[in-house]
Amino acid sequence: MDGQDQNPTTSPAAAQNTEQSGQDETRIPKSRFDELNARMKAAEDRAARLEAKAKADEDARLEQEQKWQELAEQRQARIAELEPFQSQVDGYKGALEATIAQMVESLPEAARELVPDLDPVGKLAWLNKALPTLSKKAAPSLDGGQRGDPVTPVSVSDEERLVAQKFGVTAEEYAKFR
Fold this sequence. Notes:
The chain is mainly alpha-helical. The chain has helices at about 1-5, 10-20, 30-65, 70-105, 110, 120-135, 160-165, 170-175. It has a domain at about 1-105.
């Protein structure tokens, strides 16, 4: 457990740095993410059900044998086993909520009202799905890469062209001063 506490990715600041640098990396397709997420949830649910059933069976056996002391000691050991993870969970929750707050802040003001009031995981999933639709997109540049003042064609009549030639200036310079 000490190795996990020293892991730099467990701190909220490191999670934020990873998030910022991860924007340049290739993203996983949503369908693959959903598939893996569904598998993970199913496996976690099954493991939790099996663990709960085993725990309930053990508790029932101990209660039948009137071993209250052993049952109390086991529950105390389980609490002591889980307490160190509480600070980690709180850190992860804080980082997740900060990430969600940044995502909501990046939305236009009118779109912020559309964000539902869900638990952090549900809200993050909703934002990941809705962010591309709700974000303002920059208008494409239609000037073909030209910068500065656009060059407008100069219309000079033949007569003005001759006058410009007599004065020794180009037709464009003549057109500027007429």
